[in-house]
Structure formats: structure tokens, C-alpha cells
Design brief:
This protein has about 475 residues and is of the alpha+beta class. It contains 26 helices and twelve strands. The strands form four sheets. Strands 3-4-5-2-1-6 form a six-stranded mixed sheet. It has a two-stranded parallel sheet with strand order 7-8.
């Protein structure tokens, strides 16, 4: 069975007037093989009925392939390969010729085509020239008026392909960026997540700001500019936030440098794990870095002289703000809950610094409460907490960083083991068994005692059923 989507398209549409357009052609000119791309997308324009072409491609691909019409203005049909390994989008020819169709596209580097069966590249807007010069240039003066989402796509392509935005194109983007407010959240997030997940994310965010995109796409980030902090910080909230992201990127590149070589492989695997909405846990952690302090403007507390005293409850209110942001962007509940939990718990590891004993060891009960409270982001939020601490270099920073990182190195192994399920305490009694032993009915009191037993079990304070019953009776009497 043929599994290469380009071969499938060529086989199914051999007798049709059709062209491969956009990213595939661009990547071929860059020397990028399609099989090196995870879940490649192939865009096809054809002077024929797309529904029939979609059926032909699905038939040529074999079992496990799906086809359906997209709800767009162009009459596009999509074919998705088995196990979502690839997708092909088929769009009717616009303007009466392939040259006219290409002039209706967003950027010149995306406005190139080649016949499905082979032949010279069609390039009416100079895309090959701009690709060689690494320039992002609008395919026409109407590029962004036709679809305001393309303003954000400029930043995305410039970020992913390391392009410089042509000054005239930048002016067009700024003129049309308000139109983004009317674009659906799903479409906006599809572009934003690729910028945030890109290797050059910092350059992408900088470009978004320069083009006026951030205040329309992620106004919560723009709102952090100029929000002053207390003496324990060296930067305003926006500057600090971007430095936290830098620290996350450094941890991604070499987790062993901060957490020790013994945890490096496990942390890389954690960050690479798919999470939701096309993001890995590492990509979600980058969003956590960008939004962990998003509620600081609304929680800022000032003194009599106008100085910043702190941001009480910015973690709690930040969790709700994250849900507002991702609700607007129409993400999945899983991503909302995950990044919300990162924001809600990003301060907790720092609080544990003060719970260590005189030998700088963390009591097992305190560790247990941390793991239970932060579950299921116990490992992820530990990374965020360290990045947050490393990016806070105000008064007494060196001492605070040393203590925080030292604790984090101890905790991360425990967090990874907890996540793997190897250290979660196994109950010594079931709830109904304990209820009979204590002579009480199931209810909140029994639940509280079971929770106390689990904590004691984790701390190795009870080892068998008898010890568990003794402790449970003492807890019942004390209550």
C-alpha cells in the first residue's frame, strides 16, 4: 500500500488538471523532504470537482482514510490518512487560472505551485526569489483584507522559516490586524500555538509585538508591560515573564544542567509527551511560562508611596484568567485545566523551601502534600517554579536561587516517580473495611481519615494493617 501522500495524490489525480501548492512546493525548494515532516499537509488546487477528487484519493489510500468537506468559503475537501498520518486539502481553482489563484494567497513564498504529475514551478509573485532572500512578502495588497488571520500567519511563517518581514508587508499587517478580533478563536490558536512551540519562539513573540499582533491575539501578555514589581525582582512583569520563558527553553535544551544528569532522560520524555491541541507537555509549559503571572496587573498591591508591595492571590486569579484566555481561543478542556494548574501551583515549590529541616531535608509529609496538591502537573510545575525562580534576580537573589534549585533537585525525582505511579501509597485497608473497624458510617470524616492514612503511609509512619487501624482510631478520637 502506498503511504506517501504525494504519491497517492499523483496516482489518484493523474488525469486531472491539478497542482500541488504552498508549503510542499516551498519545502521542496528548501530541500526539505516531506517524509521528514510529522503528519505532513498537502494542499492541492484543481480545476475539477473536489468532492470527487477526495473520493479518488481516499480510495487510492485504502482503509482507515476519511474524507469530508470543510466549512470554509472555498469549497475545500479534506482527506485524512490512516491514524492521522497525513492530510490532503483539495480546493477548487480560483480566478480562472493557476497564476490568478496563486495571486490570491497570503505570502509570495506560499504562492508557488507545480503540476501534480510533475513540471516547472509556477511562481507569478516572485516567491522563489523571496525564499532565497528569506523575506516574508505579501502576495498582493489584498492579502490581509481577504483574511485577517493572515496577519498572524506572517509572524508564524517568519518565526518557523526565519524570514525577515518586508517593510511594506509589515505596514499592511499593522493596518489590517484589528480584523483579527473577528476571527474565530480556533483559527487564531492554531497559528499562535505554532509560534509558541517554535524553536525561535522569542523572535516570534518579538515580531508579534512589533506588528501589533499581541494586543489582539494575547492581550493578557501585552498588559504586563510596565507593571512594576517589588525589590526582589529586577524586571517588570513582562520582562520577567519573557525571562521565565528563556529559562524554560534552557531547561528544554539541557534539563540535566539544572536537575542533574540522572533525571535528564525522564524530563526530556516528559516534555516531548503529546498533551492536547497539537501541543506537547513542553509546549504547554511554554504557555504556562507566558501566563503564570498574567493576573499580576489586577492583583497589584501598592504602598502609600505608590511602590509595589506584592500581588496577593495572583496564582489563584491567574488560574481563572488562563481559563478565560483559552476559552476565548476555544482550546480543549484538557489544555485549559493543565495550564491553569501550572499557574495555580507555580508558587508552591518555593513555599516548601521554608519547610525543610535543619539538614535541609524536606519532611515526607510536606512532600506528599505537594505531590497530591499539584497532581497531575507535579513534575511540569516543578520545572516552571525553577524557571520562575531563576528569572527573579532582585534582592538576595543568589541565596534564594541556590535554596530553591537545591530543593527542586530533590523534589523532581519524587515528582517523576509519583507521576509514574511507583511511589503512590497503596491503601492498607479499603474504605468499607476501615469503616467497620472504627464503627462509623462512610462519609466526609472517613474520607479525611483515609487521606491521613495515605499521608502517613507515604511518610513510612505506618507499615501494616494493624498500625493503620491504630492510627485511624487515634485520629477518630482526636476529631
Amino acid at each position: 500500500m502506498v503511504t506517501d501522500p504525494l504519491q497517492i495524490v499523483e496516482q489518484a489525480l493523474a488525469d486531472e488538471p491539478a497542482w500541488v501548492v504552498g508549503g510542499v512546493v516551498r519545502d521542496e525548494l528548501l530541500g526539505r523532504a516531506l517524509d521528514a515532516v510529522a503528519a505532513p499537509d498537502v494542499d492541492v488546487v484543481l480545476d475539477a470537482e473536489p468532492a470527487a477528487a477526495a473520493h479518488a484519493i481516499a480510495r487510492a489510500s485504502g482503509r482507515g482514510t476519511a474524507r469530508f468537506a470543510l466549512s470554509d468559503a472555498f469549497g475545500t475537501w479534506r482527506v485524512v490518512g490512516p491514524d492521522h498520518a497525513w492530510q490532503v486539502d483539495l480546493t477548487p481553482l480560483r480566478g480562472g487560472s493557476i497564476e490568478a489563484d496563486l495571486r490570491l494567497r497570503d505570502l509570495t513564498v506560499n504562492a508557488m505551485a507545480r503540476p501534480v504529475g510533475g513540471g516547472p514551478v509556477v511562481d507569478p509573485t516572485g516567491g522563489r526569489r523571496d525564499l532565497a532572500a528569506r523575506v516574508a512578502r505579501a502576495a498582493s495588497d489584498r492579502s490581509f483584507a481577504d483574511d485577517p488571520l493572515r496577519t498572524l500567519r506572517v509572524a508564524r511563517f517568519a518565526t518557523e522559516l526565519d524570514l525577515t518581514v518586508d517593510p511594506g508587508t509589515a505596514a499592511l499587517v499593522r493596518a489590517h490586524v484589528p480584523g483579527l478580533d473577528a476571527v474565530s478563536g480556533e483559527r487564531v490558536f492554531a497559528e499562535l500555538r505554532r509560534i509558541v512551540a517554535a524553536p525561535r519562539v522569542r523572535a516570534g513573540l518579538r515580531l508579534m509585538d512589533e506588528l501589533g499582533l499581541t494586543e489582539h491575539v494575547l492581550p493578557e501578555l501585552s498588559a504586563l508591560h510596565g507593571v512594576e514589581q517589588n525589590r526582589y525582582h529586577h524586571a517588570d512583569v513582562l520582562g520577567h515573564t519573557l525571562e521565565v520563558l528563556d529559562e524554560i527553553l534552557a531547561i528544554e535544551a539541557d534539563p540535566g544542567a539544572v536537575f542533574g544528569p540522572e533525571h535528564a532522560a525522564a524530563l526530556r520524555a516528559l516534555l516531548a509527551e503529546p498533551l492536547a491541541d497539537g501541543l506537547t507537555r513542553g509546549g504547554a509549559l511554554r504557555f504556562g511560562a507566558l501566563l503564570h503571572d498574567a493576573a499580576k496587573p489586577q492583583t497589584r498591591m501598592v504602598g502609600e508611596a505608590g511602590e509595589t508591595l506584592g500581588f496577593p492571590r495572583h496564582d489563584v486569579e491567574g488560574e481563572q484568567l488562563v481559563r478565560v484566555v483559552f476559552g476565548r481561543l476555544r482550546t480543549s478542556e484538557r489544555l485549559r485545566a493543565h495550564v491553569g494548574a501550572l499557574t495555580r501551583h507555580h508558587l508552591r515549590l518555593g513555599f516548601l523551601v521554608h519547610e525543610r529541616d535543619e539538614d535541609a531535608r524536606l519532611p515526607r509529609r510536606a512532600l506528599y502534600r505537594y505531590l497530591v496538591t499539584t497532581d497531575p502537573v507535579e513534575a511540569d510545575v516543578s520545572l516552571l517554579s525553577v524557571a520562575d525562580r531563576l528569572a527573579t534576580r532582585g534582592r538576595k537573589a543568589d541565596e534564594a536561587i541556590a535554596k530553591h534549585v537545591g530543593l527542586a533537585r530533590d523534589v523532581i525525582g519524587e515528582a517523576l516517580a509519583w507521576r509514574a505511579g511507583t511511589t503512590r501509597p497503596v491503601p492498607l485497608l479499603r474504605g468499607d473495611e476501615l469503616a467497620r473497624e472504627l464503627g462509623i458510617e462512610p462519609g466526609p470524616r472517613l474520607g479525611a481519615i483515609l487521606a491521613q492514612l495515605a499521608e502517613a503511609r507515604f511518610a513510612d509512619e505506618v507499615r501494616d494493617r494493624q498500625e493503620a487501624v491504630v492510627l485511624a482510631r487515634s485520629l477518630l478520637d482526636d476529631g
